[in-house]
Design goal:
CATH architecture of one domain: Roll
Strand content: 25-35%
Distance between the termini: 40 Å
Number of helices: 0
Structural class: mainly beta
Protein name: DUF5776 domain-containing protein
Pfam family, one: DUF5776
Radius of gyration: 22 Å
Length: 329
């Protein structure tokens, strides 16, 4: 199955069993095992009732329009067919949301530290989890199940945590819908130039379903885009060569972003065998020149630790601290 992080796929069917959740599965941001639960169908009513989550089964009603967050921006309807206009990742309702309010069923991520709350009024004693500010490629992700407003009319998202490698995976609750703190994972607007920022790169395909592999692009590759298209609740960029790549903000970034190719050691540094290792395997002396393979961050799956920038080089990982290394051509 070809799919990008944050994309939703249907729950597999198992004869004689009902899934505990009727919502589609969201592909993990960093890979790993997806945990879903099923219950045996009741013999008295041909399948029984599906267990509910908090009293009601979350649904993804994609025919509804996105509400407007009370943060100074508003939502507007787009009637233009030109590719330079924002597009909504819902083919049945092409609404352009200037406020970047997410559609039900859409994936969002956090830009700043936020909490997951038990209630929509955000009482401190009802906090279920804290999510720290993370580097863009590792930002915590959620799927919007429904909307709510607090006692003062502020918009909230009722979400499911989809950080599958975190202990918070699967938790549900309320988070802010303020676009200074939370944004949709997928771009809605056309950007003529994008840069691959995912440490593992991205692939291009022949179709917007991401089938028919064409080419792999490494981190730092700059791509030219001709238009943006939708696929279910996600978006894709069509390159000028006609091939298609993801429009996932955790994987690509609008504009040109430079990544170092070489560094020179200013002071003695340690070489670590793994990204999160605390014990070094080798000492590298000042003056040594190293080729950078990737720019990465420690603890990528943690939602409570921000992560420290590292350079992947031959044999392992080294610090990216400018006090110790200098970027060179």
């Amino acid at each position: 199955m070809n799919a990008e992080p944050g994309e939703k796929v249907a729950m597999p069917e198992i004869t004689g069993y009902n899934p505990e959740s009727t919502s589609p599965i969201t592909i993990p941001a960093g890979g790993g095992t997806i945990k879903e639960y099923y219950t045996k169908k009741s013999s008295t009513n041909g399948g029984g009732t599906t267990p509910t989550n908090g009293g009601s089964t979350p649904t993804t009603n994609n025919s509804s329009t996105s509400p407007t967050a009370n943060n100074g921006s508003s939502s507007s309807q787009s009637t233009s067919s030109t590719s330079t206009q924002p597009v909504s990742p819902q083919p049945s309702n092409p609404q352009a949301s200037g406020s970047l309010v997410a559609t039900k069923g859409e994936a969002v991520y956090s830009l700043k530290p936020i909490y997951l709350y038990e209630s929509k009024n955000f009482n401190s004693h009802e906090r279920l989890a804290k999510y720290t500010k993370k580097p863009r490629v590792n930002r915590p992700m959620f799927v919007v199940i429904r909307y709510a407003r607090d006692a003062n009319g502020r918009l909230r998202y009722f979400v499911r945590d989809v950080n599958h490698l975190s202990k918070t995976d699967g938790k549900t609750g309320y988070i802010t819908a303020n676009t200074s703190y939370v944004r949709p994972v997928y771009y809605r607007s056309l950007h003529k130039v994008i840069t691959v920022i995912n440490p593992n790169g991205v692939n291009s395909y022949r179709t917007k379903k991401l089938t028919g592999f064409v080419k792999h692009y490494r981190q730092g590759t700059i791509l030219k885009v001709s238009r943006i298209v939708t696929h279910n609740l996600t978006t894709r960029y069509v390159l000028t060569n006609g091939k298609i790549v993801t429009a996932n903000r955790k994987l690509v970034k609008s504009g040109k972003t430079s990544f170092p190719k070489n560094i020179t050691v200013k002071k003695g540094i340690k070489l670590y065998s793994t990204l999160n290792s605390k014990s070094s395997k080798q000492h590298i002396k000042a003056g040594k020149k190293l080729q950078v393979k990737k720019v990465v961050y420690t603890v990528p799956s943690s939602v409570t630790q921000s992560g420290t920038k590292r350079y992947q080089v031959a044999g392992g990982y080294v610090t990216a601290n400018s006090k110790y290394v200098k970027i060179t051509k």
